[in-house]
Every structure is written in structure tokens, then in C-alpha cells.
Design brief:
This protein is an alpha+beta fold. Helix content is 19%, strand content 18%. It has a two-stranded antiparallel ribbon with strand order 1-2. Strands 3-4 form a two-stranded antiparallel sheet. The chain has a two-stranded antiparallel sheet with strand order 5-6. Bound molecules: 2-acetamido-2-deoxy-beta-D-glucopyranose. 2-acetamido-2-deoxy-beta-D-glucopyranose binds at residues 40, 43, 71-72, 76, 78.
């Protein structure tokens, strides 16, 4: 009786440690954590990046007032504040409805402002930004 239980416990521990090893938690920078995890000023943003099972296609501003980005495909505590040149660029060409676009477009924009897709397939990903 005691043996299977012990075996089960050991298995659970092993399983748990394997998983927690892979699933190390990195928290988005906060005002408090920046001292421990400082900005990498000369880093390069990686888009899209994964943070806590969510995918981000551009600079984000949770926790901090100013937008930041991850420097690794999966966020690992390396980050930087976004300057104008760090934001995700338009992706050309991109597919929108039944057309391929090689430039920013006003199509489908209520106010006629030019926009572009941040991935090659707008129909699937729906991530976009206004063109300046
Ligand atoms: C994450 O990005 C930083 C900054 O570019 C780099 O120094 C580090 O080696 C990267 N980590 C991994 C695991 O690739």
C-alpha cells in the first residue's frame, strides 16, 4: 500500500519540477522591478513576442506608462522602452479581404485614414496600425 503512494508522490514531484523548469515566470517590467531587471537600451524588439501565453505584435504598455517590447521571442526578462523606430513595421505585402496590398490603404477605414497590417494575413491575424 505504501509503495504505490510513494511512487505516485515521486512521479508528481518529477512531473512538477520538469514543468516548472520549462515554465519559468518572467513578469512584465514594473516600476518596482526595473532596478532588478533593467532596460536593455541597445536591444532590438522582437515581434511578435509571447508573454504569459499571449502573443503581442507591437509595443505594449501594461504595468508601465510608456510602451515597451520584449527582446526575445518568448519574454525572458529582457526588454526596452519603445522609441518611434522600435514599433512594429507594416508588413508588405499583406492580404486584406480579397486583395493583396503593397502599400498602406484607406480601404475599410471609416474615416479614410491610411493603415497597414502588421502580419502578412490581416484576414487571419487582425493586427494593424495607422500609417504615418
Ligand atoms: C534574449 O535577448 C537578449 C538581448 O538581445 C540576449 O542577450 C539573450 O541572449 C536572449 N536570450 C536568449 C535565450 O536567446
Amino acid at each position: 500500500m505504501a509503495q504505490p503512494v510513494a511512487f505516485l508522490l515521486v512521479s508528481i514531484c518529477l512531473f512538477h519540477s520538469l514543468f516548472s523548469f520549462q515554465e519559468e515566470d518572467y513578469y512584465a517590467p514594473t516600476i518596482e522591478s526595473i532596478i532588478r531587471n533593467p532596460e536593455t537600451e541597445d536591444g532590438v524588439c522582437v515581434f511578435p513576442f509571447w508573454y504569459r501565453s499571449e502573443i503581442f505584435y507591437d509595443c505594449v504598455n501594461f504595468n508601465l506608462k510608456h510602451k515597451w517590447c520584449s527582446l526575445n521571442k518568448t519574454f525572458q526578462g529582457y526588454w526596452k522602452y519603445c522609441a518611434l523606430t522600435d514599433y512594429a513595421p507594416c508588413t508588405f505585402p499583406f492580404w486584406y479581404r480579397r486583395m493583396i496590398y503593397w502599400d498602406c490603404t484607406e480601404d475599410g477605414e471609416v474615416f479614410g485614414k491610411r493603415w497597414c497590417s502588421l502580419t502578412p494575413n490581416y484576414n487571419k491575424d487582425h493586427v494593424w496600425k495607422y500609417c504615418i
